[in-house]
Amino acid sequence: MRAFISWSGGKDCTLALHHFLSNPQNKACYLVHFQTEESGISKHHRFGKDVFDMQSDSLDIPLLYEEVTAMGYEHHLKRIIDRCKSEGIYAGVFGDIFLEEHRAWIERICKESNITALFPLWGMNTLSAVREFCNLGYKARVTGTREEEEFLPLKGMDINNEFIQKIQTIEGADPCGEKGEYHTMAYDGPLFKKIISIIAILLLLLPGIKLSAENFRRIISLTPSVTQSIYYLGAREALVGCTSYCHIAKKDGVEIVSSAIKPNLEKIAALKPDLVLASGMISERDINTLRRLGIKVEILSTPKSYEEICTQFAAIGKLTGKEHEANQIIKNSRERVNSVYTKMRASGKRDRFFIQIGAAPIYTVIPHTFMDDYIKFSYGENIACDLESGTIGREFVVARDPDYIFIVTMGIVGKNEESVWRGFRNLKAVRKNKIFILESEQACQPTPVTFAETLEIINKYISEK
Fold it and tell me: Per-residue pLDDT tens for 100-119?
């Protein structure tokens, strides 16, 4: 059967598409989206045609993007149906689950137009539906929520087991968001040829950043990765202060105004910055003091994923007047990351990874951190995928028996750790000589450039025979 897919860009229409295509005799001929907002941005999903174009490209299904005029939604749906019928398409797929009134309206229009309306998800338990979406390997990000306080923390979350548990704690909330609790953008999964960029969308979700047209000319960075980002953007001339851990800026003679967690407030005030970019490690008391001095402070928390890395970088680009440069760097990074991911995914092999950060105590990369994305984009499995805390013992690693061990640390410490692990001769990674060291100044810096560089190094090691 040939059909068009009613497309909002979210998880429900993606799951409906998956169900429809589970029959090999079916073909999805078009993704159809009706835009009702004059701005071109959906007030619920918070994204527009650029995202739909990327989804269309990744799914390899053409997009029909219909702007709804004063003629009304029904008029435009019938117009699209007539076009599809002219091409031999006599069915439409819709992602409705239980809204009877909406289904009846769709069925009436389709009946009047002599086509078949298909509802692959109809009658599903909504908790089962969202779990199936995750279990199939699809990924989506919450891009909009209802305005009630209990729903706002959902914004920016990925649809995963953590999300499912969280929304079940909200009284009366539907797990699938069928009462408008939240809206999503699907960006990866079995039908996607490549991961979708959601940088522009995440700019709307990044907490604490109120972007304006103002370009700041005297910036103090209290985070090494932010300092590195400023250099990548070519905005060094705006940087007037940094931390003792911002090595590139120290060598450049930039004023040191802070340790990793304790800023020198007098020094900062003396430099008369128009913007201070701080991390979540700086105390609330110090932040409030700076603000009382009339200094604008933005908090840039450590990104929890590659997507958030790119989002934060784009935000820094806007703050420094380097939006074009930021977009180009992100585009280049994404191409490099997708290249590695596509290559590893094509192999069909999912190896087990242990990434160690530090030695006393041993600490491993855990889910919902940007470093876990090194494993995801390598199409691997994290041996710590079920942990909430990263502190482990060597016996844990022995029991999980990884295919690869990556030690993220500097100098002699890394070599010592490698030597210790090689003493565990029954480990698969030891037997196959798959223990590698990654430089922390590169692997632990959440920027689009260093992320792509580190991922490529990991890929190089994995590809070695």
Answer: 989 999 999 999 999 999 99
**In angstroms, rounded to a whole number, what is the distance separating the alpha carbons of residues 182 and 142?**
7
pLDDT for residue 67 is more than 70: yes
**What ranges make up the beta strands (E) of 98-238?**
116-118, 139-145, 182-188, 219-221
- Check whether 42 has a pLDDT greater than 90: no
CB atoms closer than 10 angstroms to residue 202: 24
Single-letter amino acid, residue 410: M
Q: What is the distance between the alpha carbons of residues 30 and 320, in angstroms, rounded to a whole number?
A: 40
| Radius of gyration in angstroms for the set of CA atoms belonging to the chain, rounded to a whole number | 25
Q: Which among 407, 372, 404, 401 has a CA at the least distance from the CA of 388?
A: 372
Residue 308 within any structural domain of the chain: no
Q: How far apart are the first and last CA of the chain?
A: 46
Q: Are residues 388 and 434 in the same domain?
A: yes
Q: Report the candidate in 246, 292, 244, 298 with the shortest Cα–Cα distance to residue 269.
A: 292
Counting the structural domains of the chain, the total is: 3
- Domain holding 407, by residue range, is 348-463
The token duo for 450 is 């260093």
Question: Helix (H, G, I), strand (E, B), or coil: what is residue 312?
Answer: helix
Please report how the helices 306-319 and 448-463 are oriented relative to each other, as an axis angle in degrees rounded to 10.
150
User: Which phi and psi angles does 285 have, rounded to 5°?
Assistant: -60, -45
DSSP state of 158: B
The token pair that represents 429 in the structure block: 């990674």
Contact status, residue 186 vs residue 138, Cβ threshold 8 Å: yes
